[in-house]
Structures are given as C-alpha cells and as structure tokens.
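ARCHIVE RECORD
Type: protein–small molecule complex
Small molecule: protoporphyrin IX containing FE
Source of inputs: curated submission
Record status: active
Notes field left blank by submitter.
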Amino acid sequence: MTEAHQAIDAAAHDDGHLDLSDHDSFTGGVPHRTFERLRAEDAVHWTPECDGGRGFWSVTGHKDIMTANGNNAVFSSGQGIRIEDQSHEEYMARRTFQETDPPEHRLTRRFLNPAFSRPAIMRYEELVRGLASEIAAEAFARDEFDAVEALAKKLPMMMLGRILGVPDADLPFLVEKGDALIGNTDPDFTDTIVDKVDTEAYRFMPFRSPAGVELYDYAQGVMDGKKDVDPEGILARVLGANDEQGVMEAQDFKNFFCLLVAAGNDTTRYSIAMALYQLTQNPNLLAQLKTGTVWNTAPDEFIRLASPTMHFRRTATEETTLGGKRIAKGDKVILWFVSGNRDKAVFDDPHGVNLARDPNPHLAFGQGGVHLCLGMWLARLEVRVILEEIAARVSGMEALGQPSWTRSNFICGVKSLPVRIRR
Ligand code: HEM
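STRUCTURE (tokenized, with ligand):
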C-alpha cells in the first residue's frame, strides 16, 4: 500500500457499509471502502433512500458506468440528473440542456462547443498564468494559511468571471451563491439545508435553493441590459444567438446561468484542493512535479482522485439489464463516476497517485457520454497552471490539521486544509 493510499483510506473513516443515500456518509471524505465492497460484491446495487425516496440503482464499476453513459436512449438525462425526484412542473422550471437528451441537447451543445474547445481555452493560458502567479505570490507572503481559501478557490472564480464576461466586482457574490446551490446539503454553505428543512417554497428553483432566486435576478439583470457584461463573454454570445443557433427562452437562460455558476466553480476548486491535499500527504509528489516531466498527465490524475461531481443520475426509459441486474422502466440509475475512477479492473493501484498515469481513462468529466463536461479543457488548464506556479515557488507543503470535507453525496471536496509551506 502506498503512502498516499493510506492517507485516502484514513480520510474516509469508512467501514465499507455506509449508506450512499445519506449525505452524512460523506463528511469524512468519500466512503471508498463502501464503493470498493460494492464493486466486488454487487456492482449494480439497489440502494434504498434514507429520506423515504423510492430508491435507486448504484452503478459502481467502470465498465457498467461507461455502458450506461453511452446509451442515452435507454439511460436518459431527461427526467433529472440528481437523485431527487422532481414533478414534471419542477423539472420544466429548473432544467438546463444538461437535463435533456439528443436531439434536443445537441442544438445548445453545438452552439457552446467552440467557446469551450481545447484551442479556444488554450488561448487563455497567459491570462490564467498571470492570475495564478498573483494568487501564489499573495498566498506565499505567509508561511501558514488555509490552502483552499488561498490557493484553490480563487482561480476558478476569476476564470469563471472571464468566461461569463461579468464584472470582477460581482464574483464574490456569484461564488457565494454558487456554493449555496451546489452545497445545498452543507451547513457551511447554506442555512436552507435541503434534507433538513422545508424547501417547498424553492421547489421551482435550481437545487431547491433560495440562492437560486438571487441568481435568477442577476440573470434577469443581464437580459435586461442592466449588467455591464463583456460582449465576447459567453452570456452575451448566448443572448445574441440567432434562430438557427438556438435562441434561449428567458427561463432557459436563467437556468443556464445557474448551471455555469455552479458547475464552473466548485468542481475545479475541489480538484486543485485534492492536489494540494495529496502534496501534503506525500512529499515525493511535489518533487516529481518540480522535475517538469509530468505536466501532461498530472492534472488528470489529480482530477481522477478528486472526482468532485461524484455522480449523475439517469432514468431508464425501458426495461433493461445492466451488470446482470434487471432495471425497470422509470428506475433511477446513479452513475458513481467517483467509484469507477477507483476500479482496479481499469486502474493499477487505484487509490494511489501516479502522476505519470497514461492512459488515464477516468470518468470525472462524464467521459463516454454526450454530456461530457463542457469545461473540461478549462479545468485541466487551471489545475495545471496553478500547480506549476506553486511548484515553482515552494519546496514543501505540510498539513497542520485534518482537511474538512463537504457534506454531500453529490459534490465531494476538501473545504479547508491548514498548511505550512517551505520555500
Ligand atoms: C474538474 C472540474 C470539473 C469536473 C470534474 C466536471 C464534471 C462534469 C461532469 C461529470 C459532467 C457530465 C454531467 C452528466 O453526465 O450529466 C459535466 C458536464 C458539464 N460541465 Fe463540468 N466539470 C468540471 C468543470 C467545469 C467547468 C469549469 C465548467 C464551465 C465553465 C463546466 C461546465 C459543464 C457543463 C455546462 C456541463 C453540461 C454539459 C452537457 O450537458 O452537455 N464544468 N461536468
């Protein structure tokens, strides 16, 4: 067992039998032993829901996840992509193109693809490096600090602003609201904890969250021309689309805005945070980064280990079988990307960190499906460049305490990590 493996297991506090429907099962980190047991014993596992929901299939093996994700005719995104069941009215009010199947999905996706393609994103490298260099210099003015606040959080927020085309002054507000949306089960991010209080009043809002109301208002301001947005940014471009490119209705635009604010921020933050956590656990990793030989592969290895969006849901459109189990029409099928990413049938030493892993067929971006992450190239660029800037400045990073993890079975991440650096 590698040093890093021990660290991950220690962080999981997991006896192999935790309830995947319970957000509290994730407060000590991902319950990797539970996933490991399921992959070995019952890879497509019927999972009752602790809140009285109708239950779901947990798909935990790499192969079965790829099979389901590649077949959207049978495993559809068109009835919601999170475990929560929605009425048809709630679904229609809250859905984005991510909650649709082809051919409907294709129009928006085709319009957005060029702005997020690898060449388009690589044009931001200089900008990203400038921002990352400022962030690192500011953080390293001190020897001790919280690595998530000082290093992981800022770059995704700043780049989200550039991509959307919104003023920098609005970013703290957007990040706070994005955190509240995606962290709707975590008391550190919201008072309206979705599984603890009555959220009926917000059932037509993204993530059943009151933060959705404020983000909708912001998006309305953009539509009304009351916000000073960059004409080259994605919001202005979407609003300027013609009929052929696919004009978004007002409600679709508001939901699209919320999707980007939620998806473009925490996920990359938690990937960087996982990398920093790993650096504190194994000094050899920083030494390896400093050699400069693993920059093509290291970001994806950290993203594989982080798997910040642990699952997305599909719904069976017909009776089918998966991994030898009979799935009924209408059943909820949860693709646990976070589990597929530790499947020993695909990854040697799956809990270990191999910065030179190549190929690295991880599923953290929803690989194998039509909803493959739009922000994948941006996330990879940000992870690489901030780590390059860190590796150029420090010779060691030591944890001063335990990391704290998000309370969520949807988004996993290190929320805080006190560190001391050595120059
Ligand atoms: C490491 C960081 C990230 C991870 C792990 C991640 C993960 C994912 C995953 C797993 C999906 C597939 C969802 C599904 O199958 O239903 C997805 C889709 C998506 N992601 Fe990301 N994401 C990241 C960063 C970003 C960023 C930076 C942005 C935007 C700036 C973004 C925007 C989106 C959008 C718009 C979709 C929906 C695409 C579609 O439905 O066609 N993501 N992401």
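CURATOR ANNOTATION: The longest strand covers residues 311-316.
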